[in-house]
Every structure is written in structure tokens, then in C-alpha cells.
Design a protein that fits this description.
- The structure is a single chain.
- The protein is α/β, with parallel strands linked by helices.
- It has one domain: NAD(P)-binding Rossmann-like Domain (Rossmann fold), CATH 3.40.50.720.
- Helix content is 44%, strand content 19%.
- The chain contains twelve helices and ten strands.
- It has helices spanning 2-12, 28-31, 39-52, 55-58, 107-120, 122-125, 139-150, 162-168, 172-186, 199-202, 212-218, 221-224, and strands at 20-24, 61-66, 68-69, 81-83, 88-93, 100-105, 129-132, 135-138, 154-158, 196-197.
- The strands form three sheets. It has a four-stranded parallel sheet with strand order 1-2-7-10, sandwiched between helices.
- The longest helix has 15 residues, at 172-186.
- It is globular and about 60 Å long.
- It starts with a helix and ends with a helix.
- The relative contact order is 0.19.
Length: 225
């Protein structure tokens, strides 16, 4: 939060700045009526509130929601792990496989389409939220895409609860597991709470986005696994 507020203050104190893009996330706690306070979501949404309290900065700001990166599969909680006795890669989760996942695919390639469109249309995007999402899938389907891309057989396994999940990856398991539980319960409202623009409103719906599968194919899985 402090880093984000420092950035906002620096932006506010830069008289030559004409457009500020702040990468943020929805207020999970507010969307779920206090049930899921996902730390990295809450920290960023509090910075949103700070920017909104500064009218001079708010007028120059576009709030950018960047959805799930395909490269998040390098995070230990999402990386499928090889189980020698079964010959398969297992992905543990604290939710079922049908949890909806909005994704940006290859963030390194796809975010630029959104930021360029934001800067090109300041009259539309200043003071607004933008949802940077290129594909909609589920956590289970994403694992199947990984298997197709890597040609490695995989199995989705749900653990009993968040405590067991966090025991495997202390702290990180709690953070990401809580995010997945929030997505499971919120469903289509996971990215909500604000009036936002999509790729359609920005006029980039037909852009050549790099897909999840293309991203997985380009990653060096020999080094990751």
C-alpha cells in the first residue's frame, strides 16, 4: 500500500504528467460482503481509494485490472508437480475445477494492447476502470490447456480445505487459495464493483492476442518443472 501511495503522490506532484495508468485489482472484500479479504486485492483497492481522494490525480488516472497471467503457472501453487508413482503431473487446488478464470494470456505481449488503447482514447478512459482480459476459462480447463501445450498428462486434485493447502505452501498457499475461493464464490462478479471498459469498448477486440496455449508452448518447462 505504501509503495502504491508513494507512486500516486509522485504522479500528483508531476505537473507535466497528463495520463496515469494504475494497475490494480477489484475489492474482493466488498464484492464478497467481507467474506474474502484477499491481501493483494485489498492493498491495491485501498490505493484506488487514495487516488479517488485526490481529484486532480483522479482526473488523469485510468485504473487497469489485469487478469490472471498464463505465466502464473511458474508460481509453486499453480505449477503441476510430477508424481513418479503415477507418471502424471498433479495440480493441487482448494476449489473445484469449474472456478471461472479471466486471463490476460501472455501478459508481456497482451497488456500493451490495452495500455496503448487507453492512451489513445483519454477522453474515454480517464477516471475509468479497464478490464484487461483476453480469454475466459476455468481452473480445470486451464490445466487441460497446459497438458495439450506441454504434452504432459495431468490430474486436477482438490484438497479438503484452505488449511491443508496452506500447509503445502505456507503463506503463499493461504494468499492464492483465498483468491481462488473468492473466484469460486463470486463467479461472474469476481471482476466487478466498478463501471469498467472492456476490449470491445476500447476497439481492440480483434487484436492478435497471444493465447494461454501459445504462452505455455513458449515457456521453458524443463527449467520450471
Amino acid at each position: 500500500m505504501k509503495q502504491g501511495i508513494n507512486l500516486a503522490d509522485a504522479a500528483l506532484q508531476t505537473p507535466t504528467l497528463t495520463h496515469y495508468i494504475w494497475s490494480t485489482l477489484p475489492d474482493a472484500s466488498r464484492i464478497s460482503s467481507g467474506k474474502y479479504a484477499v491481501p493483494h486485492f485489498q492493498g491495491k483497492s485501498r490505493i484506488d481509494d487514495y487516488i479517488k481522494s485526490k481529484p486532480a490525480l483522479l482526473r488523469k488516472t485510468t485504473f487497469l485490472w489485469i487478469t490472471f497471467y498464463a505465466t502464473n503457472y511458474v508460481f509453486p501453487m499453480f505449477t503441476p508437480n510430477f508424481v513418479k508413482s503415477s507418471g502424471k503431473y498433479v495440480q493441487l487446488a482448494v476449489t473445484g475445477p469449474d472456478v471461472p478464470v479471466w486471463t490476460i494470456g501472455d501478459a508481456a505481449k497482451n497488456v500493451g494492447f490495452f495500455t496503448s488503447a487507453i492512451l489513445a482514447r483519454p477522453e474515454l478512459t480517464k477516471g475509468r476502470y479497464v478490464l484487461a482480459s483476453t480469454e475466459e476459462t476455468t481452473i480445470g480447463e486451464m490445466l487441460k490447456i497446459w497438458s495439450r501445450a506441454t504434452k504432459k498428462e495431468s490430474v486436477f486434485v482438490k484438497v479438503a480445505n484452505l488449511e491443508e493447502y496452506n500447509a503445502v505452501w505456507p503463506m503463499l498457499g493461504d494468499e492464492m487459495g483465498l483468491m481462488m475461493q473468492f473466484w469460486e464464490e463470486a463467479g461472474d462478479k469476481s471482476w466487478s464493483g466498478e463501471d469498467f471498459l472492456t476490449k470491445k469498448e476500447l476497439g481492440i477486440e480483434g487484436a492478435k492476442f497471444a493465447s494461454i496455449e501459445e504462452t505455455f508452448k513458449l515457456m521453458d518447462w524443463n527449467a520450471i518443472l
